[in-house]
Amino acid sequence: KAGVTQTPRYLIKTRGQQVTLSCSPISGHRSVSWYQQTPGQGLQFLFEYFSETQRNKGNFPGRFSGRQFSNSRSEMNVSTLELGDSALYLCASSFGGNLFTSTDTQYFGPGTRLTVL
Amino acid sequence: ILNVEQSPQSLHVQEGDSTNFTCSFPSSNFYALHWYRWETAKSPEALFVMTLNGDEKKKGRISATLNTKEGYSYLYIKGSQPEDSATYLCAFDSNYQLIWGAGTKLIIKP
Asked: How far is A117 from chain B (nearest CA, A)?
């Protein structure tokens, strides 16, 4: 069974640009969550999608957005990039029990390393 | 502001020795506590999800305990091996928030 895949793996952008990251979940998984990880910080939850709908959202500004397609693949977009957006962005998929009320295991992708210059 | 603390931040352990580290979380509005292992250049991998006070889970040489009343969980590794080198993350699951600790980086010295 193929794991969670993320593209691209590495990305360099400049301030003010926008970026789109992609995540393909494990086949059969309907929930996709996105996280940001910066050095010394725990994973910060961005949002979760289930059946093409954003079901949960973390405390990030509106520059961070996402969507999910009918095949459960998900994209996240960051507009007007800032230096502080440099981070590892991880997505995780699960079968789809509600992220916060089930004990569904999340399976993580390898991440996209975004560098903003 | 809900906070999850993991200690120590990093740990060097001799191969063959046993070790343990801590995840502290708020003791109110608890739903579940997750442990993950994150090896360098790989993706985080789920170890345990624990929901009940007094829960104890085991997978091979790794085990975890949970105390929801005082808000902590311990992860134990018995007879550490080089392949145990990784960052161990815990995540506190409460009331529609999933809050992660910064992790404990474990380095096994041969």
From this structure: 23
